[in-house]
Amino acid sequence: MSKKTGIFAGIDLGTNNSCIAIYKYEKTEVLAGADGSRITPSYVYIGEDGVPHVGKSAKNYGHKKPERLFYDTKRLFAAKTSDQICKKYKNQWTFDIKRDAETGYCNYNIDGKIYTPEEISSEVLKKLVGYVGEKVDGVVLTVPAFFSTEQKNKILEAAESANINVLQLICEPTAAAIAYGMEHSYINGEMLFVFDMGGGTFDITIIKILNSKDFEVVVLGGDSHLGGRDFDGVIIDWIYKKLEDVVGKNNLKKLVPRKKYKIMEMAKEAKEALSQAEDAVLQLSEVHSDASDVTLTRSEFEELSKGLVAKVKECIENTLKCKALNQQEINHVLFVGGASKMPMISKLLKEFFNEAKFSKTVNAEEIVALGATRLAAKLGKQSTRSDITDLNYRDKISLKVGIEYADKNGESMFKKVFDNNTSYNQEQVINMKTTQDNQKECEIALYEGLYDELEKNAHIGSLKLMNLPPKKAGEYNVDVILTIDKNGILEVKTNDLNVAVKYKTQLSRKPKN
């Protein structure tokens, strides 16, 4: 197979940090910015002149005016102001959130101007692509395994806004497993347990190696609302309690954004320090002059985090149970994402797996981008190496997809069309019949989630069939074909070309080719 010219990249757009790698001279290379760092903070500062600053410079500006600093953007993709994530962190965030009147989604607000999370993320993507120094022909973007259809569409919108040609999406744990294969010769039939905890999401993916180049996702687990920021959060709550004892609860409510941002950064720094040391000093006097500096020990931090660790443990247990797997069947345990470095995480995983199976050589914050780059090299025909050209993987969806229907009592119910852990590139057919004479159109509500109860799942849009032929009730029927595409996104069509299909939300948005 001959190689084609061009530059193709893999991008890991993270909640806290992002990373880009390219494939060049038959090697993957993680690119650094002007400051020499290969990791770019996913922060965007909007100056008073409207000019965006990205990465470390954004954080530097943000220390003075954090109300102009936007972060946690990945957590806000398709998030509504009524969602638990917004309620939980609204008082900790230093920026202003406004509800979109039409969709209910969270948007950023500064100087009366609205920025969507996709617009902010597009600035991070532009920054990363700029490291290449020349035109990038195609990119593979990574997403958490537990990203919903709406969230995947949002990241594609961000890429489109940044004028990036997205070749494909790939789940972050799968990309990590592919990258790990660069330095480890897999044995046919080996099983990988990928523990991926970034700033905002937590994924577990168990992958079976059918040969050294064929990766099959066996089962997915995790929590889309659990990540390193939640561990920051328990320290933030602890700090607020310490300050409350000194200055009073009412005075705490009056903290200016600059002080709130200082607390957030202090908590994050303490969390990272406690991965290396047994204690960390927090200078609360920098927040309030009447407060004294305090010390947080690693054991205290672990006690504060007990509830979060219990959630992580439950996810591990449920993922293994889902396919009746035991610990002995796992050959490798991969740690992915910055939050996976916390000692309490490795301590927990030792309860399940022999430490000899733990990956020791991977860079937890670069491995995902490296794996995505290998796929980009294949899709862009950039290599003659068989481990690239023959690369194959099968991702799965993490959420059930279904439609709303009325039972015999007229109650709205959830009818599952695709189960969670269904592989990509699958289709199902639903036969629809008219219920009225000369019915001109029919509407189907689409839902996504982990539950069998309709009200617990998310309404992701409506499918409307129009231009139905005039016939008596029940005489006309049409097959509605629902497909999970190569990106894990829902597509819909019918077997009657005369019937128009319309979405109320962009469920079938595709990356540019």
TrEMBL record:
Name of the molecule in the record: Heat shock protein 70
